[in-house]
Amino acid sequence: MLQGRGDERATNVSVSGPPGAAGPVFLELGPRPDEKGQLVRPGAREAYPPDVHARLAADAAEIIARYGETSAAPEARSALLPLLHLVQAEDGYLTPAGIEFCATRLGLTGAEVTAVATFYSMYRRNPTGDYHVGVCTNSLCAIMGGDAIAAALEEHLGVGDGDTTGDGKITLERIECNAACDFAPVVMVNWEFFDNQTPDSARALVDGLAAGDEVTPTRGAPLCTFRETARILAGFPDTRPGALEAGGGAAGPTVVGLRIARELGMAAPVAAPLPEPAASPDETDRPLADAAQEPATSPTTLSPVLSRYWDDPRSWTLDTYRRHDGYRALDKALRMDPDQVIGTVKDSGLRGRGGAGFPTGTKWGFIPQTKEGGGPATKPHFLVVNADESEPGTCKDMPLILATPHALVEGVIIAAYAIRSSRAFIYLRGEVVPVLRRLQAAVAEAYDAGYLGRDILGSGYDLELVVHAGAGAYICGEETALLDSLEGRRGQPRLRPPFPAVAGLYASPTVVNNVESIASVPPIILRGPQWFRSMGSVESPGFTLYSLSGHVARPGQYEAPLGITLRELLEYSGGVREGHSLKFWTPGGSSTPLFTADHLDVPLDYEHVATAGSMLGTKALQIFDETTCVVRAVLRWTEFYEHESCGKCTPCREGTYWLVQILERLEAGNGTEADLEKLLDISDSILGKSFCALGDGAASPIMSSIKHFRDEYLAHFELGRCPFDPDRSTLDDAGDCSQVARNNTARGHI
């Protein structure tokens, strides 16, 4: 037998027939239908009873109507992901009955539906307990205690990864990053947050679930069952009394930067500075790059703009948003010509906050507003917000939506108006139900207040906005993969050109923007581009959210002008945890080359970080101290990229697999020095040669970690084991300031 990789995408191939015998050779491809992980299982429902079918059909019609007027409309296939959530809500996992129901509703084959369903990790292929308990074991959570928590729960419950307890109550699974790194280690129950967990607290949590106690998440509503959660993901709001209010306002790490700014008397400018005296001819002749501001010699101040009222007890509501100038920018924008709105955003210099840093106004300007030969454009325009925040370490967009969803909604309306779009979508990752709950409520409030729908604020402008929950696939953060997913397909990147501005969603001109990018638009429209440019540098202007997580005293969100340094942010946050020192860190999430203590003074903007050899990315600053094994961290990130590879291109699909094999051998102490050269060789074969940037993200931490910590790699096989004690890097380690910070937060202190 030729054994496959051993994961859910593996194919087992066996050859039947005696050696040397003539005749046919039979190949058995894949696990048998009765093996774990298949959609056809003994006892699985083959068809729905008439009453269940009728109830689901009514719900399905409502779902399909969000995307197309009828199931025959080409846009109707976009309803496939929510329909799969719907049938999962019925059965607790995907059954042949559910697959056939979705196929019939959309005019697809069962094979087409199955091909999509098996691509996404949130669709269960086995019966799932009332409570799906997911332990984050991506690098940061794992190192801070996630691995220990997962092992403790597996022993305590007597089940393995992905298994369900005998009473059918709890399904335990090791999961990937859930955009809550500043609350690490994190456990998710039915995709609700349980923050800063330890093995003891996690055992108490599952004991409460097993006993039927009322268990309340750290952030979110009292738990409902796994099936009830799937219905929320299908787009049906949680109508339980108090569900929105549960969990209160933003939690400690989310508002830590805001509170520190207030303590220090720091704030964003309230108006644009007065014009400076005219420059001399010599100065005006300088190229823009040369005219960029040099790193400031005085400390950079925090500048809360998006986060300025996140600590309001009801920050997510429309009333609170209006008290803080909410929807004033929309009123102003609707009185402007759409091209003038685009020009204002261009003049501000706002760059995309999702990783690439592409100028937002320029992207909007790519949308063709007229057809060739004149006249209005014949194809509809679409705006899609990329809220699929899944990059390990990245945790800024989810707290933004959770705290102030109306900031995003207002930005969506302005952006859609600017590009002359009448339909917009927010593609939100599915694993964050508390965020989905509040976003759904904010959109409903906006409709009721006349900010969405027909004739917005009497302007004659119409806009429909759909919140679309994903189903667990990191690759859908790539904009063209996201568009394929939104169209009800497997989330795989498209060949470009054509670019989305020409042929995006439904082959029509489309703008795809990040959450923070869109939420930054209303302040720019309201206060003007010069106000925005008064912060940051010439080429990287404005404010942004920096997410500190890991071995730092006060992890959380820190809003500051672009160009602040990590040294300054660590001073504000209390530094690396007491008694420890900085070893390495990521400037923009796990896909960016690592930095060390030598890079503390690199200005965190697009140009300076690139010059120093990395990327600003999502400004996800994961901090690791000297107790951390860099090989362990890089292995875990590489396992993530191997798991999340869509499989479309050979360099990424095959390369990430072999990177994991070699890193596992090295981390266990069984490697050789030749393995390091092989790692670099494979990484070089992936970097810049894969279909999308996922391959680059897998190679970057490997290549940079060997550059900075080659001796540490060598020490593993010289000693025959990992030289680090994993317990020393966890949240439970004595003297850990993260534990102190958590206790202080509970008492109302920073």
Automatic annotation (TrEMBL):
Domain NADH-ubiquinone oxidoreductase 51kDa subunit iron-sulphur binding: 631-676
Cofactor: [4Fe-4S] cluster; [2Fe-2S] cluster; FMN
Residues of the signal peptide: none
Transmembrane segments: none
Pfam families to which the protein is assigned, alphabetical: 2Fe-2S_thioredx (PF01257), Complex1_51K (PF01512), NADH_4Fe-4S (PF10589), SLBB (PF10531)
Record bears the keyword NAD: yes
Polar residues composition bias: residue spans: 295-304
Keywords: 2Fe-2S, 4Fe-4S, Flavoprotein, FMN, Iron, Iron-sulfur, Metal-binding, NAD, Quinone, Translocase
Gene3D superfamilies: 3.10.20.600, 6.10.250.1450, Glutaredoxin, NADH-quinone oxidoreductase subunit E, NADH-ubiquinone oxidoreductase 51kDa subunit, NADH-ubiquinone oxidoreductase 51kDa subunit, iron-sulphur binding domain
Catalytic reaction equation(s): a quinone + NADH + 5 H(+)(in) = a quinol + NAD(+) + 4 H(+)(out)
Region Disordered, residue ranges: 1-33, 272-306
Superkingdom as given in the UniProt entry: Bacteria
Entry's Gene Ontology molecular function annotations: 2 iron, 2 sulfur cluster binding; 4 iron, 4 sulfur cluster binding; FMN binding; metal ion binding; NAD binding; NADH dehydrogenase (ubiquinone) activity; quinone binding
The keyword Cell membrane is annotated on this UniProt entry: no
Biased composition (Basic and acidic residues): 1-10
NCBIfam families: nuoF_fam, PRK07539.1-1, PRK13596.1
Family, similarity comment: Belongs to the complex I 24 kDa subunit family.
Function: NDH-1 shuttles electrons from NADH, via FMN and iron-sulfur (Fe-S) centers, to quinones in the respiratory chain. The immediate electron acceptor for the enzyme in this species is believed to be menaquinone. Couples the redox reaction to proton translocation (for every two electrons transferred, four hydrogen ions are translocated across the cytoplasmic membrane), and thus conserves the redox energy in a proton gradient.
Protein name: NADH-quinone oxidoreductase subunit F
Species per Swiss-Prot/TrEMBL record: Rhodococcus maanshanensis
